[in-house]
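does this look right to u?? magnesium ion version
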Amino acid sequence: MTGPELLPLEEARARILEDVLPLRAGSTPLAEALGQILAEDATALLTLPPWDNSAMDGYAVRSEDTLAATPELPVVLDVVGEVAAGHEPEIAVGPGTAVRVLTGAMLPSGADAVVKVEDTDAPPGVASLPRRVAVRVPVPAGKDIREAGSDMRQGDHLLDAGRRVTPAAIAVLAAAGHARVNVHRRPRVGIISTGDELTPLGEPLGPASIPDSNGESLAAQVRAAGAEPVRLGIAIDDRGVVRERLLEGILDTDVLVVSGGVSVGARDVVKEVISEIGTLDLWRVAIQPGKPLAYGSAPRPDGGYCLLFGLPGNPVSSFVTFELFVRPVLRRLRGEDADGGRVHVWARLTEPVRKSAGRRAFMRVRLEEDRAHRGLWLAHLAGGQGSHVLSALALADGLAIIPEDDAGAEAGTEVEVIRLDIEVA
Ligand code: AMP
Ligand code: MG
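got this back:
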């Protein structure tokens, strides 16, 4: 059977992403927003610090009173009170006096500097309030005072829409007064494995069966991409069964990923089923592995659309086509830039590679730092490059890209590598 022309990778990606928009946003408790994407810019609801406060455990003083202090001839000040964090000052600092302050305490009026306890004769740690304190060093005005608004002012811009909510973002949002944030909904991604030979994980294998590893790896890839996997099990290679499973799957998911049954075999029914229940937009991309990728969409009863991916069943092809096509879609649906999140590096091949001309190859490589050339990498083939060789995939740090037109590359060729072992927001 001769299929349609192979689509160049960029064209396939552009067609797939053309109509994909971020999912609607909703208000979410801050603690539940970890890993999700801000749907709007975040601004400060508070000024922080709200008032001048002490950066140290020590004594609030008037700088001018301390200017003559030395370790040999300390300046002695009367201690007239104390302010702890969370308490309003009840007393001011006047000439010749000091107020003991704890870190984060509001600065009492009259004071313009703090001398830390280590620079006085007062004992550090828990101690009763002394009547006097000897200051051993001069402290300039402003010393160890955290000024009101020195972190943020109410209305300041903090984080852009599209930013991922990291633990650090949670810290700043909480400090800025946000108990809830507007984030995009996580995509729900249905996963269906097709094949008579497949057995669910943990069940005894028949004489002609293998574990459904794609179901497991795709669910893990979906989760790693910040989306929610919905396992829809295994469908045998029967048009009616596959069709029923897809029709059930689209009811409640944003994306359906079907693995296997998408090539030119006598029982490869997935493309036909996609055409029956919706539209098949493209099939066959000029890549290796993963050529028989199919993409389409189907209307849902609620008026929306479910995006449908038919990924080739070979485990490495399934993994790589998810990385190249499904992951960008999930990022876009989540509200992130589709192409972000991966680091690309340049590396020199340590051995020659062969490939099919006319298809861009993604080869599993292990990276090693090039000791002779700082900042450069050496790329070793991680093992056999067959689409069924999972053992090499597991050892790989990345995918080395070999251009369409080449039939291979010599040892020493510089190649671009997509690092799979590093993810950046
Ligand atoms: P297919 O794309 O259905 O022709 O399958 C290609 C190869 O991938 C065959 O050797 C299948 O047994 C294998 N395969 C298909 N689906 C899976 C799966 N879910 N888990 C592991 N291997 C699979
Ligand atoms: Mg199959």
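The radius of gyration is 31 Å. idk if thats expected tbh
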